[in-house]
Amino acid sequence: MLWIISVITYKWGKKVREASPIETFKISEIISTSSFAMLSLILGFTYSMAVSRFELRRKLVVDEANAISTTYLRGKIIHVDAAKYKQLYKHYLDLRIESYDSYDNPERMKEIKRATGLIQKEIFLDLEDITLKNRGALESAYIYALTGMFDSEFERSIALDINLPTTIYIIIIMIAIVTIGMLNFDRGYSQKESHWAMTLFIVVFAVVVCFIHDLDHPHTGAVRISQAALLQLRDSWVFQ
Predict the structure, then answer these.
(1) Where are the alpha helices (DSSP H) in the chain?
(2) The whole model's pTM is what?
(3) Where are the chain's structural domains?
């Protein structure tokens, strides 16, 4: 799209020059520089937002792994049926790992969320039975850890669902259109035939915007968040 706009504005500038040889339509370099500065500013701002969101999502993976591990170990002390308890948490952990890898599959994601909710409900009902009999320090510590585990699951799910507003990308593209349009009109009006610099700029700009978008969608793009913390927990001594 930007390349088509650059060609159109370049030819438009040449036609205007042919119709009016006197340089009355030449765009000031100050305007072009200001447009470039504005484009660079909003690109840097958007990149910073995407990186901060990426780091937050990566941190939430570690936080959730720690929350599951803490909850499981505390609950293991007060549960009588250790085999059933262990199987329940292993299934929950597998669902949390799969939820990230299946994010681009809406049907599977619905099944995973439903199964996750059922396990959470079962764990909570089991906790109710335990607290009816005993409400000591161990039970209180388990309750605190369990609510933290549920909160971690919710926070991580919300963090993946919320992305940068589409309006930001629209504004970036609009500023790029104006900037490239003015520069190519000026180039056409000045009879500059070399196009390699503008082509390189368009390519670099497209790559940067695509990278920012990819960074903001780590569950579907090339830049993905590692699930190493959850995978290591599944293979650790905790669940052996």
Answers:
(1) 2-19, 29-78, 82-101, 106-133, 137-161, 166-189, 196-215, 228-235
(2) 0.81
(3) 2-47+165-215, 58-163+225-239
